[in-house]
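Residues determine shape. Next comes a sample protein:
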Amino acid sequence: MNELARPSRLRDSHINLSHGSGGKAMRALIEDVFLGAFSNTLLDPLEDQATVPIEGLARLGDRLAFTTDSTVVDPLFFPGGDIGSLAVTGTVNDLAVGGAVPLFLSCAVVLEEGLPVDLLRRVVASMRAAADAAGVQIVTGDTKVVERGAADKLFINTAGIGVVRRGLKLGAASARPGDAVLVSGVLGDHGTAILIARNQLALEGDIASDCTPLHGLIDAMLAACPGIRCLRDATRGGVATVLNEFARSAGACIRIRERDLPLREQVKGACEILGLDPLFLANEGRLVAIAPPEDAARLLAAMRAHPAGAGAAIIGEVTGQPAGTVIMRTAFGGDRIVDMLVGEQLPRIC
């Protein structure tokens, strides 16, 4: 359906409770704001579900991947992204790190009474741009409105469906002693960008969120190294949490080197000022990979050749003991255990 050909029916400047009532006001909101931006053949009928032909999916692989994510970031807009682009990118990446080709997303929103409609339009336009960039379609959704004060402006839930490539099996339990540990770029940019956007920190130089879809990078990685053991995006809990999950699933030890961690000086400075550990900072466009040692150099070259992996680095290796543990060799030559995040380092980060 041609977006420009659809007349605008929404006259309200702010969200009110009638926009969640199921009546004419809600229909106007959906048709104007959401259908106007997301229009496609699967969404346009506005049925209670999107009906997807199975035949086309089977050509891409032999298994469906299905994931869901809720985005509650504060503030809604920050350097390098916003709640809309973050919602799409996060779900796309959750599919991609499992070896799936991302295809379809849902979009469910919880709107607070009083939210400016123009702000909602900006977020929805950003979601559409992010979906187009990732090659996915938003094909179904839901809208709820709550009273003023019952939510913080806008929350988004996205679910995603993709198809896993035939014969591909990625899993943390497959990591083996001797394997190399790689990251796809500089770490902690998203968490630092959120801190700056909240006016909690003043730093020289620009830090923007690394919010970006990873499926193209992963395609290049799998083409260069089909034997990759496992992949995961390092979002909440950061790289430290991912590495601990890998170590526990594999029953192995992962040893990393502080000197090899790719970190911007501004991120290091922010962490020193606030007493934060950059290994726990959230990332929204960075992944951690484990690969056989003989493939590590080739994989690193393929990652660095892709824009989303230009800052990739080998940061350590898998060893045998102590099992289920992550140990970092510090810049001073000592060792320290890197545990999973305890408590909440930065709330409302994604």
Notes: The first strand starts at residue 63 and ends at 71. The two ends are 32 Å apart (CA to CA). Confidence is low (pLDDT under 50) at residues 1-5. The longest helix spans residues 117-134.
